[in-house]
Amino acid sequence: MANLKLSKLAEGLTSRSISKLSEKVDKRNEQGEKTFNFTLGDFAPQHFPIPSELEDEIIAAYKGKHTNYPYVGGMEELRIAIAKHIKFHGQFDYQPDEIIVSSGARPLIYLLFKAIVDPGEKIIYTVPSWNNQYFIYLANATPLIITTKPENNFLITAEELKPHIKEAVLININTPLNPSGTILEQNTLKDILDLIVAENEIRIQNQQKPLYVFFDIIYWFLIYNDNEYINPISLNPKIKDYVVFIDGISKCFAATGVRVGWAFGPKPIIETMRSMLAHLGAWAPKPEQIGTAKYLQKQQTVTNFLDKFKKDIFERLNIFYDTIQNLKRAGYKVDAIEPQGAIYLSIKLDIIGTKTKDNKTLATVEDILEYLLDEAKMALVPFYFFGMEEESPWFRLSVGTCSIDDAKDAAGFITKAIESLKNIPTH
Ligand SMILES: Cc1ncc(COP(=O)(O)O)c(C=O)c1O
Question: With CB atoms counted within 10 Å of each terminal CB, which end of the chain scores lower, N or C?
Answer without folding.
Answer: N
